[in-house]
Amino acid sequence: MSSTSAPTGIDPRGLRFAAGITSLLLLVDVLLGLTGLSTAHTAEGGWAIAQASVAERLLDPAFLLLLATALLFLWGVLSPRTAPWGVLYRVVVQPRLGPPEELEDPRPPRFAQGVGFVVVGLGLVLQLLGVPWALPIAAGVAFVAAFLNAAFGLCLGCQMYLLLQRVGIVGRQHPVAV
Description:
DUF4395; mainly alpha; transmembrane helix; DUF4395 domain-containing protein; 63% helix
């Protein structure tokens, strides 16, 4: 069966490219979080973050980088076509490559961006509330997911989407009969 319409979907290599940049940002954030306010102790032996003001928590370099990453995740959910790493891939990298062997449904990667936003958002909120270790743990979880996607093409958020689709929670009105 042939079709005269253009194929629909997105280039999975672009997703891996974006995941590679995101994983680098998250790795730096994990390192900043492990050496910064989130894990530091005071001279009295308590957690520095518990005694820090909200302004100090906001201005922590690990918080600022994770906030930027969260905004990039949100951008990927709201307007994936204009998200910076996708634009960079389409303008600089993709023209140097041949066409992709296959295209991917854009819904699972978009859902994965939302999962990334929720994970890092939780770390940001807990940092503001003064919870020790929350920020580097959230950044670490997001890093593992981004790295698996970049290095192996395994998108954990996409797998979650497909599982939720199978049980009928997302993507279709009713679950498919097995």
